[in-house]
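Entry for the shared binder. Reason: the reviewer on the internal report wants the predicted structure included alongside the sequence.
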Amino acid sequence: MAKQRKTSKSAGSAASRVLKDKRTGKDSKKAAGSALSQRAPKKKR
């Protein structure tokens, strides 16, 4: 079985900024969405 990898916190933050920016292209937003979908869910306190 392949090792599951998660997107780092800093990469997730960068991807979030890309999605919020109105000037980014369709391909950039697609890659950012993919990165965010691989983030680990936030842990509940």
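Summary line for the report: The chain has a mean pLDDT of 85.
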